[in-house]
Structures are given as structure tokens and as C-alpha cells.
Design goal:
CATH topology of the largest domain: DNA Polymerase III, Chain A, domain 2
Strand content: 35-45%
Number of strands: 24
CATH superfamily of the largest domain: DNA Polymerase III, subunit A, domain 2
Helix content: 10-25%
Strand order of the largest sheet: 5-2-3-4-16-15-14-9
Number of domains: 3
Structural class: alpha+beta
CATH class of the largest domain: Alpha Beta
Largest sheet: 8 strands, antiparallel
Radius of gyration: 26 Å
Shape: elongated
């Protein structure tokens, strides 16, 4: 069969987003390529036993397979070829032959018995909760929420994004206990109750990779123990994180209370300012914000006593606000064509960050560190030491 190497490379990279980089099972470092049910297509798939990704690729000629081969090797071969790729049987047992007539290239690649390929086992759900969403919207929401997912293995329920039904929306939430980032998509929910599900971070990142294509409608099937996502040329299945997600609604501050002041800033200017301040190698990872009227001042320091200040333009009220935030958290919440900072008067309530997309929301807890006071004061040297 003949395959465009660029299309195969994209499919391999997408499928391998679900492959386990560290595994004691050699088969899990492979991809399986097999004939598809659709005429003129083959299926490229990979799994780590918790996530499975399948990608359909157009072919010419008679389909060949199934076979299992090392995914990294296949990507390397495809990357160096320009002409159509031909894959077929080899005279050597347990191997395939890959060639490109246009490039004058031919190689023999060892394979693993495809019958060893693990089945992705999930509960047989006849009554799944099915919804349809835009692939572009779903990808954007996942990219936003995964920024705030916790890396703490002890808080395993926070090691994924929460998919939750909220009226006529699918709400996607990520939180680590110090910040919360949330976005939502308008959907038409079927009748019946739906409990929220926790999507593991590796599965969310694999789904982001799968949806890096043209706009299409994708269908989400929420089963009792797994999520099934299908699109025009892609399918992802993943198991959930078992457990109860915290009531994130209790973490959301009241934006309408009177002590919040709103400051609009250009996201590119704010991102550049934080990048410049990061040149100090700030061990505290904290920045102090002082905003008033048309000026937003950002200060930081490090343990050696080095100081840095960056001033950018903003649009806000004349009342002054001072706030201290984790620099990494603040940087992750910047995006879109406009960023709005809502800072409380007490300096300790959660700061709120809004984007141009109205449904995109983030909040982060303030830090008790006063950047100016954390700079260590060096004692004057004695005359002898100075000499």
C-alpha cells in the first residue's frame, strides 16, 4: 500500500501521544497499523492501557496489515522521505519492507506479533451520555484548563481536568489548590442526570494533539468508566480518574462585590514584562503588582538582593491596588487579545483574570510575601574585610 509520508507522520505523532515512554512491555512502545473498515484508509493506533488513540490515514492500493512496529523508528523514516511511501511484506520473517521509489530508499523493519496487541477494555455501556461539540472549542478549553492541573500525586483527583455539566454548558475545569482555570462550551445535553468526570492529564494532552486538525464536529460519549471521543478521522478512548472532584464552586470569588478593581492590560505587554523580570532567576517566583489608573507596576527580587521593576500601560480606575502573585501562575493565565485583572482591596482575596473569550476564567490566591520586605539586607563590611 502507498501512503503520503507527511500524513503518516502526523498520524504517528498523534497516536504516539498515547504511547507510554517508559514501559516494560515492548508492544506498548509500538504503533499498530491495520486496514480500516472504510475503503481506502488504514488505522494507526497506540495505547498505554489507560488511553487509546486511533487515527485514519488515506492510502492507495491494496491495504496491508495488521502489523506492530516501533513508532519512533517509523517517524524517523517518514521524516526523511519526500515521495510516496510503500509498505508491504518482507521475505524476512516478522518484518515489513518500506520503500520510496522517488527517494531511491528501501529498508526492512522488524515487527512484533500483532496478536500481542492489548485490548482496550472498558465497561460495556449501552446507555452513554452523548454530546457533540466543536473540535476547535474543545481543544482551546482543554489547553486552558490543563495549565492549572496539579502535579501533586498525593492529590490525585486534581491530576486531571474536570468535565462537568452546568445548565446548557460543558464546563472544563483545572485546579491545583492555589489557582483555578475554567472554560465552557455551549452544548445540548440529553435528558437524565450526568455526574462530572475527571479526565487524566495524559489523556487531555493526547486529545489536544488529536484535535490539531481542521474544524470538525466531535462526539463525546461518557460511559460509566471511560470517555469515548470520535471525530471524522480520529478516535480517543480513555479511562477516568476515580474519585470525587472538590466543589470548585466554593473557590470562585464574587466578582460583583464592591472591593474589586478592574484593570485592562495588553497580554503581550504583560507577558513580556514577566519574561524580563524572570531574568533575575527569582527563587521566590513572586511578583508584586501595583496598579492605579493608566499604570501597572510589577516588582520582584531574588535572594541575593537584586531588584527589578517593570511598568506597563493599563486601563483602570484611579484607586490604587497592591497585590502579590506567583509569577508562574500569572503568566499561565495570560492569553487572547485582551486580559482583564480584577484585584481585591484587601490584597489577599483571590485575584481574577478574564480573557476576551467571555467563558474563559481564572482565579489565583494571593501570596503573603511582600516582595520589598523579602530582600535580605546586607550588613556593612568591617574595614579589614573591606580591604
Amino acid at each position: 500500500m502507498k501512503i503520503d509520508p507527511k500524513l503518516l507522520t502526523n498520524a504517528l505523532k498523534t497516536a504516539r501521544s498515547a504511547a507510554s515512554p517508559r514501559t516494560t512491555l515492548p508492544i506498548l512502545s509500538c504503533v499498530r497499523i491495520s486496514p480500516a473498515d472504510r475503503q481506502g484508509f488504514c488505522v494507526v493506533e497506540a495505547t498505554d492501557l489507560d488511553v487509546q488513540v486511533q487515527r485514519w490515514v488515506p492510502i492507495e492500493g491494496e491495504p496491508f496489515g495488521p502489523f506492530c512496529a516501533n513508532g519512533a523508528t517509523l517517524v524517523s523514516i517518514c521524516a526523511m522521505l519526500q515521495g510516496a511511501l510503500e509498505i508491504g511484506p518482507s521475505s524476512i520473517p516478522d518484518a515489513i519492507e518500506i520503500s520510496s521509489e522517488a527517494d531511491g530508499f528501501r529498508t526492512t523493519l522488524r515487527t512484533i506479533d500483532h496478536e500481542e496487541w492489548p485490548d482496550f477494555r472498558t465497561a460495556a455501556d449501552h446507555q452513554k451520555t452523548l454530546i457533540a461539540v466543536s473540535s476547535t472549542e474543545l481543544r482551546g478549553c482543554l489547553m486552558w484548563a490543563t495549565k492549572a492541573v496539579s502535579q501533586d500525586a498525593a492529590r490525585y483527583v486534581l491530576n486531571g481536568v474536570y468535565l462537568h455539566k452546568a445548565d446548557d454548558e460543558l464546563r472544563i475545569v483545572g485546579a491545583d489548590g492555589k489557582r483555578l482555570m475554567m472554560d465552557s462550551i455551549a452544548v445540548r445535553w440529553p435528558g437524565g442526570d450526568f455526574e462530572g468526570r475527571i479526565l487524566p492529564t495524559p489523556a487531555a494532552k493526547a486529545l489536544i494533539a488529536c484535535l490539531d486538525t481542521d474544524e470538525q464536529e466531535v462526539r463525546l460519549g461518557f460511559g460509566s468508566d471511560s470517555l469515548d471521543v470520535t471525530g471524522t478521522d480520529v478516535r480517543l478512548r480513555t479511562k477516568y480518574i476515580e474519585g470525587t472532584y472538590p466543589n470548585y464552586g466554593q473557590m470562585l470569588p464574587d466578582e460583583d462585590r464592591g472591593d474589586y478593581a478592574t484593570f485592562k492590560v495588553a497580554p503581550t505587554a504583560l507577558d513580556a514584562a514577566l519574561s524580563r523580570l524572570g531574568s533575575l532567576g527569582n527563587e521566590f517566583s513572586a511578583v508584586a503588582i501595583k496598579a492605579s489608573g493608566e499604570t501597572l507596576e510589577i516588582r520582584t527580587c531574588n535572594a541575593r538582593g537584586d531588584r527589578a521593576t517593570q511598568t506597563i500601560e493599563c486601563d483602570g480606575p484611579d484607586e490604587e491596588r497592591e497585590y502579590c502573585l506567583n509569577a508562574t501562575n500569572l503568566k499561565s493565565m495570560i492569553g487572547g487579545t485582551g486580559t482583564v485583572l480584577k484585584l481585591p482591596a484587601d490584597g489577599m482575596g483571590p485575584a481574577i483574570v478574564r480573557q476576551t473569550r467571555e467563558t474563559r476564567y481564572a482565579c489565583a490566591m494571593g501570596m503573603r510575601i511582600n516582595v520589598a520586605d523579602e530582600i535580605p539586607q546586607k550588613e556593612p563590611e568591617s574595614g579589614k574585610e573591606a580591604a
